[in-house]
Amino acid sequence: MGAGHDHGAKSLGEAHRGRLLWAFAITAGFMLLELAGGIVSGSLALISDAGHMFTDALGIGMALAAIFAIRRADGRPHRTFGLYRLEVLAALANAALLFGVAVWVLVESVRRVGEPPEVRTGLMLAIAVAGLIANIICFLLLQQGAKESINVRGAYLEVLGDLLGSVGVIGAALIIEFTGWWYADPIMAIAVGVFILPRTWRLGRDALRILLQSAPKGMDLDAVTRTLNEVPGVEDVHDLHVWTLTSGMDVASVHLSINAGADLGDVLGEAREALHEHYGIDHATLQVEPAGSSKACESLSW
């Protein structure tokens, strides 16, 4: 027997679709501007920032594609959990893409340290300032959604890296302009790459954790078992599984052995309420069995 919500309900990513659309348009436009400006000015820091903006635009585009695909999956009976996992796959793809760009920037920056080229700082500075404004707008658009959806968080982290990258490019342009120290350009590019790598790692790790159906981070399964054991009429709790379907959607399945005199409806209702109230689990499949039947599940060792 199960208790839960309608899988056709909106995901957290869907709730932020409009903000993602605006962020995509702004990011794609300024990515082209920074790329052209970096090539003309000869600034690796500006080209690296354009590279990050490209991954931003692609990442936000993948996030939007996942949201639209999820909407199209509603009402299709063979997709019993919908396509919510596409949000997680998009986040993992974002992490892999951003990791690759960061590594390329680091390698190219180290190569340039030995022979830094001349940079047109006036053009570099003007485009970096415009890019900073664009990144601040996107940052504000995605900030709230990043707290709720791993999909939006992937795009948000990329924008955050870009925002700091724009600050770094501005700093490098000012240093070169007033001191003539050309090394500031490749060194700033290295700093941006080093900053973004650990955040990319954490995003990829969180996405893999969901895809591998690990228990939600911070979830104490022993505590969940104790909570269900405290439900009146429950004699034993076994075969408990808790995992995350996508951001904000934790689900569970569990077997409950109940006393002979216990009311089935009361046990199900109170167990469902306990899972919701203590652990935020709104979809749970609860299998109720007669007391003493838990040994029948021991053969399922996987």
UniProtKB/TrEMBL annotation:
In the record, the note on similarity to other proteins reads:
Belongs to the cation diffusion facilitator (CDF) transporter (TC 2.A.4) family. SLC30A subfamily.
Major localization class:
membrane
Residues in Cation efflux protein transmembrane domain copies: 21-212
Organism expressing this protein natively:
Phytomonospora endophytica
Where is it located?
Membrane
- Kindly provide the name given to this protein in its UniProt entry: Cobalt-zinc-cadmium efflux system protein
For membrane topology, the record states: Multi-pass membrane protein
Where would I find the Cation efflux protein cytoplasmic domain in this sequence? 216-290
Membrane as UniProt keyword: yes
Keyword Transmembrane assigned:
yes
